[in-house]
Amino acid sequence: MNSGILLSLLGFLPLVTPICPVPCKCTTNITDCSLKNLTVENLPTAFRPSAEIIHLGSNRLTSIPNGLFDNLRSLQVVYLQGNPWECTCDILYLRSWLQWQQNRSLYRDVRCSSPEHLQGRIIAYLTEDEIISTCQHWYCSLALLSQLSLFILLFLQGILVIFIIVYLQKFRRMTAEARSTTRELDQQVAPW
After folding, report:
1. Which domain range does residue 150 map to?
2. Listed residue (158, 183, 62) closest to 118, CA to CA
3. CB contact at 8 A, 93 and 64
């Protein structure tokens, strides 16, 4: 009997809609998070699956977390204008998502605020090379760190090889001494 009730409740599970993300206001298919002073750090991590329209305009968003819109099958439009978008490596997901949208004209106001050489450019029309060129400082730091680590590792290996060579030479001298001592003892002990 209990399993029958549980199964019938599980049948209604898809009808249950999650609560509206804080601090947004929601109706059945609209999630309004505009003018909430949202940043990437306090942006909701998920939206209702039934959301068709999401308002994220006029906040302080500089990028959108990877995958935020991927599982929203009913999503038709996201209003993103009025945010200070930083067109650096972190904007790649948003750019990619915008390029997959049917009606790109809705996103003509989604423009870069920084860096200076991309300021005012429409994010959907940026090339990947333009965005990645802003990431070079990170790659250079990583390359420098990698090269420094490699140099230290090679230095330590060199020291280890020197210790092994010195030990082997010492071992050869010790074995040569042991052989000569053994021969001398054999000659002294053996009566001819």
Report:
1. 136-192
2. 62
3. yes
Q: Which residues of the chain have a pLDDT value below 70? A: 1-18, 136-140, 190-192
pTM over 0.70: no
Mean pLDDT of the chain: 87
| Number of other residues whose CB lies within 10 A of the CB of residue 16 | 7
Task: Please provide the DSSP assignment of 90-148 as one string.
Answer: GGHHHHHHHHT-S-GGGGTT-BEEESGGGTT-BGGG--HHHHHGGGHHHHHHHHHHHHH
Is 87 in contact with 112 (CB distance < 8 Å)? Answer: yes
Q: Which of 104, 126, 148 is the last residue of a domain?
A: 126
pLDDT digits (tens, 9 = 90+) for 149-158: 999 999 999 9
- Scanning 29-104, the segments in alpha helix (DSSP H) are 92-99
